[in-house]
Specification:
Largest sheet of chain B: 7 strands, mixed
Order of helices and strands of chain A: EHHHHEHHEEHEHHHHHHHHHEEHHH
Strand content of chain B: 15-25%
Strand order of the largest sheet of chain B: 8-14-13-12-9-10-11
Shape of chain B: elongated
Largest interface: A-B, 68 and 91 residues
Number of helices of chain B: 21
Distance between the termini of chain B: 72 Å
Helix content of chain B: 25-40%
Oligomer: heterodimer
Number of strands of chain A: 7
Largest sheet of chain A: 2 strands, antiparallel
Number of strands of chain B: 23
Structural class of chain B: alpha+beta
Chain lengths: 416, 663
Amino acid sequence: MKFSEYVIVEKPGVFIDPLGFLKPSRALQDTLFRQFTVLSNHPAYHGVLCAIWQSCDDAGVRPGANNHALFFRQLELFWGLMNAAQGGSVINVNKYKQLLAHRMGIKRIAADHSIFQRLAYGTLGHYSRPSMEWGLLSDSGRALVDDGHRLAHAFSNRSGMDFIAEMNRWRRGEEFSLERLAKLGEVFHLTASASQVERAAWRDILAKRMKREPQTRALWDAPLPLDEMAEADKSAAAYCSYQAGLTQRYGAMADRLHVVQTFERLSGAVQFVFDLNLASLQFRDGAELQPLSDPEDLAHAIVELATKAVSMGVVDAGRLFFSLAATRRRYADVCDVIAQHHWSHQRSKGVSPYFDATGLLIRDKVQRAEMGATLEALEHAPTSQARMDLLHYRSRRDWHFHRCRTYHDWAHGAAA
Amino acid sequence: MSATPGYHSLRDTFAAVFDNASQDPVEHILALTYEFDDQQLLNLLAGKPLDEKFEPRSMDLKKISALAPVVVYDARKTKSANMVPHFMELLPVKMPAYSCHHSKAYLVATRDHVHLMFGSMNLTRSGLFSNREVFRDFCCSATQTTELQLVADFLDLVSAGYEETASMMAVIEGVRAKLSRWASAETSESAQVLMLSSGYAHKPSGLDQLAGLWRQGFGDVAPESVFVVSPFFDRGTGDQVLVSLLRRALGDFRQLRIVTDASCLPALSLRHFDGIPGRLQCIDPEIGAQERRRIEQANEGISAADLLLTRKLHAKILVLQRGDRCLVYTGSANFTCKAWDGPNRELGIAWFEDQANRLCDQIAVGLQARPEDRFAELPATPVDGSAEDDEDYTELAGYPDFVDTIALRASGADGEFVFEVSGLTLERLDDYHIDWGGERLRFANGVSSVLKGSTLFARLLGGRNLLFTPQALPAHRYFLPFRHAPELFAQREIHLHPSAEDWMLLHLGVDGGGASGSEEFVPGQKQPDSPEALRGTEVDRDQNVVVRMQRYLSLFSQIETQFHQRGQDAATADQSEQGSRWQTMVASPLLTLSAVLSRKPSRTEASHADERLFQMGELVLLAKTLEKTFQKDSSLSDAIAARLPTSADSPLQADYLHFCRHF
């Protein structure tokens, strides 16, 4: 008998993309922090990745070989079981927990176990590309380079224990007791403290990265405090004030940050118009939503911002911003441009649009309560600027500042 | 005996079935549920993680259509369901008043395995991700034969208990064939787990089945105590409560222990214990710090600090105990007369175990029940005797229960459709506004006004229901699902391709899918191109005849190359398979393309008649070339050529038609 575990479905970075903003937003993320993706969440994974690569190298298993990803997973299992034994949480932890036993060895695990099925879902799949950007793997991702070797050994040596040596024993078929794995886990689990050597390696990796991209130095010299980021998340006014503060704080990055903010603000307003159209189709029977107050003012603001975005060279989503900049400042025309864009974007993906000229095709893509609250808030916003602030806040995105803080603290110690 | 109950993510349990689909492809899916959420159903059918916000591409819809999965549910729980695809078998069960189709079971058959899951969970977000549910999953294969009998019993129940549509029969026969291959004298074992149903006309009641199982394991002695986990109970205001029926069927047991949600307390009373000593443990609505930590770990470290986590008990467990041994049941049945001895359709499993006390304690702790006994707080009769069971039958004012079935069928030869309603008093259709999508339907003698084919293409995803709004009660809205007429279902592949270009893109694998929105990357492995990049900017392709034809010819030349390769593959297969491979890999797909090309063009395509003639002609030429190259008879090209126009509008067309026919 099994009890069902709670599944958190509110995961960051998981959303639908009816207007094609995902691709340009990723491109903009790269202008700030190219080393991160929405999947890279902890620097220790890079250490593990490099240590496993090192062990693969030691065993003569090269990337590109058919069995490389499988071999990598067999070694990653060792670390995963270590985390599970210690009570920690890593990618695939539920599968590792299933495999925990009094004695464990690579030969005891069935080749058809589900842990060997989705090989891209794990350290290799989630951290290879970021590791390439950090300069730990070669540009093709097919070889560990000098800094990768250094990080592998730096991660591996903690408290007189040698992770790679233990992993090589695992690779050769040696069995481990639960106690032994748990003891290793205390030292090497995901959030266990890094050694001074590992921190030093990370500081050098950061320094080299900044040398390659000197403009981003300011972001790393003074990463945002966690409490400031938490405060900014609390209201539209706080968020927009925080955004304005960013360009002052990071003067050398001001141009890029302006582009990012313009994209976020414009895409937020456009997303709202799209959602409102959808809501008006979905909720036209029964109690209707309150009307948008002063739609022409919103259209004016959108076209104006789109014109600015085009002149700034903001990454566009299939010429949507260009079309908006060229349209008349009338709400109906803005709606029409956005709808046309949605249809062509969904068609190019090969999926159904949410609505077409005949009406709603897919329901439940917009929540009545949220839309009602937004309309209510817009009604009471005192200025056009404040209304745009609300829509900007509504569609705020993850620009990786939080990750920057985490990685910085990992390299320098949390007190830095 | 089963192992200590542990926590398992239902998302991961389902995902494990589909993760290996590239090596062990899915062949059949059959789900029994009370209700479903359309996103979760869609994900299950497409083999995606059940929590993903997945938008199916044409290729996904085509794969689902080829799979022809079957989903059985309670007709009254039909929702708007706009993410449910066409061309899968939705079988709503119309139950008598005051009863429901409550069974829950999920069968996925791959080429090499049969996975079967029983439990308390519906195919909904809350059932899969947040409720406190309980389940067991089983896997059979050539080397895992312990539960073959359980799967066979399940198929027997489905076969006798539900409508045997073509898709249902395909599932049943396909899985039975696997079972018979895997069964052998050497591997036959006595069943460890037994299926237990209720409310199926051909079987005894659940209570009688349970009593029978008890006597199999314990003889004619009564249980000493009964342990119950349930979120719903008899109202306690009528003649019967389940405890009294259980005592009548099994003998007088001496103790009853109940675990339930604290919110269920007002619905319970001493009546529910029928005068025997009891123990009552409740589960707090708040999630404790320890459970929160466990949830965070199980979710790979995602912080739950800012999330409002609530869990409703939905598990149903019954343990009949004597000494240290017990009979354990889990499944869909609540602790009610209606579930065990009434008209509800219920389904679960039962097995025998030792260490009964330990098991019951583990269950109570596992469900986070507080240790305090609240039995002394119970009143003689329920405080809230009218408390609604949210899985209970509720009166639906103006519900169109006179409708038996609704079928979508082709009408005439012009690619148009009608809905056909069957039922006893069809004149009552006039009492409703009936809509499909945004379109208002008019009915005469149960047949709707004619719909254009293009409206079907626009709603290949969603649009699986008709909306009935009683004219006298406009605030009430009821969704009734329709079925595809068998001949329409059999021809479904034609209807999945809005145009010949879409057919070609699909066969060229351009609409590939893969992990949607994923940033996963494995060095050395080819990354799938994005569908947008592969499909190109097709937005304006229909606007310019030159661009349109260039694009068509470009795709068609790739199709020519691919079908020559297919012909080669068929020709080099084993002698015994060459004929069937030619048919499935070459002839059948090309015939579908010819059917798509010969479909009546929509109004916007009316000016493309010349192009269509040319496109069909080129297809005839390709078929003839393939037949010559691989030494086949002319049946394929003859069938396609039969779709060419019989007369020409110009000398040029006449020359071209002659060339195609005599190439």
